[in-house]
Design brief:
Layout (H helix, E strand, L loop, with lengths): L6 E7 L8 E3 L1 E3 L12 E5 L16 E5 L5 E6 L5 E5 L4 H12 L3 E5 L16 E3 H8 L7 H8 L3 E4 L17 E5 L2 E10 L17 H11 L15 E7 L8 E3 L4 E3 L2
Helix pairs in contact: 2-3
Length: 264
């Protein structure tokens, strides 16, 4: 344990929920405990439901590229030359019109600068996984590589310097949290993240990988490390760690190379 030196290897935000990621060198913490720029925007239908991969497979073929500084957004339909450039802040009506035409029903883009639109509003902090974990999972699927797995599971913080599933140390029994620090930022690890059926699909085509969930559940159970709290697995379709942060962490920054330390 003392020889392990986990550190931040990669940082990702997903500015528009369900669309493509932006890789960062550093991210800042909001008062809510979420990281700035993550799931800040989301697409909604007329019934106030998210337009996401769970309910609409067309989301997978929608490519997005966002400059976080200028808010320049490029949208493209996968496999075509159909691209359109917008300013995400100033041209929301035009964006909504373009997306409505793509989905073939009216949609609206909404913004939440304080919390964003996380799946887990109780633990809205960044999700954490290790590079070794992604590499291990990719070995379970002959047709997939580590990058394929990375895109499917969409974690915010990827740590290196540790073995596969080391991040399972960052949660405990259901009534407890695990405190740890990434440099000066103090986290509370809450639980292993429950996954949905969307991860069984190719993130860019929507094509379903045969027996993805069945294989994952079987292998996750078989490879569960001795340090993992087995009681937290009512099922084994879980990966990465959900976190929360206190108000005291607001404004602090996480950077590539920052070391992760458990707090006794």
């Amino acid at each position: 344990m003392s020889s392990l030196k986990p550190y931040v290897a990669r940082l990702f935000v997903y500015p528009i929920k369900s669309l493509d990621r932006v890789e960062c060198d550093r991210v800042a913490i909001l008062k809510s405990g979420a990281i700035k720029g993550d799931r800040t925007w989301a697409i909604f239908d007329e019934n106030d439901n998210f337009v996401n991969g769970k309910g609409n497979k067309k989301i997978h073929a929608l490519r997005s590229e966002l400059n976080l500084e200028t808010k320049t957004l490029i949208l493209q339909i996968q496999g075509t030359n159909q691209t359109k450039t917008f300013n995400l802040v100033k041209q929301q009506e035009a964006i909504c019109n373009w997306l409505s035409a793509y989905f073939d029903f009216p949609v609206e883009i909404r913004q939440n600068l304080d919390l964003g639109f996380p799946d887990d509003t109780v633990s809205p902090g960044p999700t954490i996984v290790s590079t070794a974990t992604l590499e291990e999972i990719s070995s379970w699927y002959p047709q997939l590589n580590t990058e394929d797995i990375r895109r499917r599971f969409r974690a915010n913080i990827e740590i290196a310097g540790v073995p596969a599933f080391w991040e399972d140390r960052l949660f405990d029994n259901a009534d407890m949290t695990v405190k740890f620090q990434v440099k000066e930022v103090e986290f509370m690890g809450v639980n292993p993240c429950q996954r949905c059926i969307v991860v069984a699909r190719d993130s860019q085509t929507g094509e379903v990988y045969p027996q993805f969930q069945k294989t994952f559940v079987q292998k996750r159970k078989e490879t569960l490390p001795e340090w993992t709290k087995r009681s937290r697995f009512n099922h084994f379709f879980r990966l990465a760690v959900n976190t929360k942060l206190s108000l005291t962490e607001a404004g602090k920054v996480i950077e590539i190379g920052d070391q992760l330390d458990l707090i006794n």
